[in-house]
Amino acid sequence: MTKIIVTLVITTLMLSFVNAQSEETKVAKPVLIDKDALSGIGLQKIDLKDEPEKDFYQKKLFGGEEISVFVVSTETWNNKISSYSFDEYVYLLNGQSIVKAQQGPTEVFNSGEHLFMPKGFVGEWEIRAGSNLHYELSVITSKRADPSKTSKDLSYGAIENSKLSGCQINFEESDVYEEVLRSGVELTIHLKAEKPREQSNFESPQEQLIHILSGKLELTDTEGTNYTFYTGDFFVLPLGRFKKNWKSNGHGMLKYLVIEKSK
Fold it and tell me: How many angstroms separate the most distant Cα atoms in the chain?
């Protein structure tokens, strides 16, 4: 019996060692968000249990341990919300979103705008696309936060274009810039910028959706595969224990949004 127990312990330790090695050598490759889906192509129709008569479409573009990325589409629709169940980052691709908090003004958001909806929001969210279909890029966390927790800041709204313009970015003290634009209980949105530079041994601290606002970014993974992203591109850096080369370029700087799970 003692020999059997010892054998089992050794086998378990060996498997743990192999799994640890596998995790250490795992190459997590950047994922460019499907441009067909961002163009509204290839979305699957889904029947909504509570409103089967609605035209609703969805395509999951990335499902990771920390964040999930979708394109979601629907016809014109007014949704009354008693308590929004998650933080959501939205990039409007077609149509309008008209949002009114239970106490607050009505705001209109159009195609090409970035929108944040906090967990716990109360009010109305109207989707408008005329006789066509609205669609948007959506990022949520893969796992929900404690249901009792809501975002401290329940204000919703667009990520201000004045912020995204980069006019406030100052490189006098450092070659890199970072500003938290929104921080909810589940998601945090950062604006980042840097002067053109190259980093070897760059590591992804978390799963991140990155949207290049201006400039060019080149990544090379440990297998020697090159990835190049330009202004307007969306891509995901998944979790993975690996190091790679990061090279930024642009007309004076690389500027980008980062959407990630709140710490």
Answer: 75
Question: Which tens digits make up the pLDDT trace of 121-179?
Answer: 999 999 999 999 999 999 999 999 887 776 666 667 778 888 999 999 999 889 999 99
Amino acid (one-letter) located at 120: G
Angle among Cα 91, 218, 230 to the nearest 5 degrees reads: 40
Q: Which of 194, 211, 187 is nearest to 247 (CA)?
A: 194
Pairing of strands 88-94, 134-141: antiparallel
Query: Are the C-beta atoms of residues 151 and 182 closer than 8 Å to each other?
Result: no
Task: Tell me the pLDDT tens digit for each residue of 40-86.
Answer: 999 999 988 877 888 899 999 999 999 999 999 999 988 899 989 99
Strand order in the sheet with 114-117: 44-45, 56-63, 67-74, 134-141, 88-94, 114-117, 157-158
> Which stretch of DSSP H or E encloses residue 38?
helix 35-38
- C-alpha angle 181-252-212 in degrees, rounded to nearest 5: 45
